[in-house]
Amino acid sequence: MEPARLGNFVKGDLDWIVLKALSKERDRRYETANGFARDIERFLTHEPVQAGPPSTSYRLRKFVQRNRLQVIAASVVLMTLVAGIVGTSLALFEAQRQKEIALAEVDKKDKARKNTREALDTLTSDALSDWFTREQSLSQVQIDVLHRLLGHYAQFAEEGGDAVDDRKGQVKALLRMGRIQRALGDLKSAGWSLRRAVELAGTAATPITDDADGLELVNLSNEEVSRLNKAEHDPKEEEIHSRESLAAAIRIKSKIEPPHRVARMNIAVARVNLAASLTDQD
After folding, report:
1. By the 8 A CB rule, do 276 and 230 touch?
2. Among 235, 175, 244, residue whose Cα is nearest residue 183
3. What is the pLDDT of residue 28?
4. How confident is the model over 110-140, as pLDDT tens digits?
5. 184-210, pLDDT tens digit by residue?
6. What CA–CA distance (Å, rounded) separates 25 from 13?
7. Which residues of 113-130 are buried (b: 16+ CB within 10 A; e: fewer)?
């Protein structure tokens, strides 16, 4: 054996064995020659020697020396497991990040669609109110604008969804469609749109949401259909929808504290419409 390797070999445990065997204090020396021989055997088999320090790190080091292959194999397995856990964690983190990006994009599109919808609602209300106040008939330009608006509202009405806000959005879109179709003289299509709005809005007893907003949709949709019934000379149906519109208007007033002028006006309009439907049946 080379001197350098021999020096390393005899260091450590062998030093402890020699020091213990040559100790001047009797109680620190090996009690018997057999004890000395046993420590030499332990040294040769990489077991903790009796003369060595009784520390955990020392015993662990000796264990590794005795089971080098097993420890290496276990280390490889452990490193593989750690790498797998790290890889999975990174993949989950990336998936969560992509999910958050996708949700943010959906939220952004929803806000953009909501802003577009609000702009269209304002434009439609202003256009219908202004054009029918000023003129007896629509120009071709106005008709073209209404057709384009109708196309947008048709898309909104087809979006569907079971959520409360989705149903409310559908009802509002159908009401706008019905008004535009009626303005264009297409009473058949207007009837379908408005009756579908009544169906989705529910009744005064069971609206989409039991609050002023939900009841307002019931009130408006039934009011629009009652007007359509009047144009169709169907006073019985006109009465049914006028009564439903009135019931919703009364419930709206009960939901608002204190009741404002618009709520009282809605009740007055509904009563006038009901009275007109009853008069038509005489």
Report:
1. yes
2. 175
3. 67
4. 666 666 666 666 666 666 666 655 555 777 8
5. 888 889 989 999 999 988 888 888 888
6. 20
7. eeeebeebeeebeebbee
Extended strands (E) in the chain? none
Q: Rounded to an integer, what distance in angstroms lies between the CA atom of residue 247 and that of residue 244? A: 5
219-to-31, 36, 170 alpha-carbon distances in Å? 106, 104, 15
Place of tokens 């179709």: 181
Helix axis angle for 261-281 and 212-231, nearest 10°, is: 30
Rg (CA), the chain: 44
Q: For position 192, what pLDDT does the model report?
A: 92
- Rounded Cα distance between 280 and 142, Å, is 34
Q: Using omega within 30 degrees of 0 as the cis cutoff, is the peptide bond preceding 207 cis?
A: no
Q: What are phi and psi of 202, to 5 degrees?
A: 90, -160
> Average pLDDT of 262-277?
80
- Calpha distance 126→124 (Å, rounded): 6
Element (H, E) at 24: none
Rounded Cα distance between 188 and 175, Å, is 14
Report the length, in residues, of the chain: 282
Task: Tell me the C-alpha distance between 129 and 184, whole Å.
Answer: 14
Q: Summarize pLDDT for 22-50 with one digit per residue, the tens.
A: 666 766 667 676 766 776 777 777 676 66
User: What's the pLDDT band for 94 if we cut at 50, 70, 90?
Assistant: confident
Let me know: does 184 contact 143? Beta carbons within 8 Å.
yes
Question: Which amino acid, residue 60?
Answer: L
Pairwise CA distance, residues 163 & 171, whole Å: 13
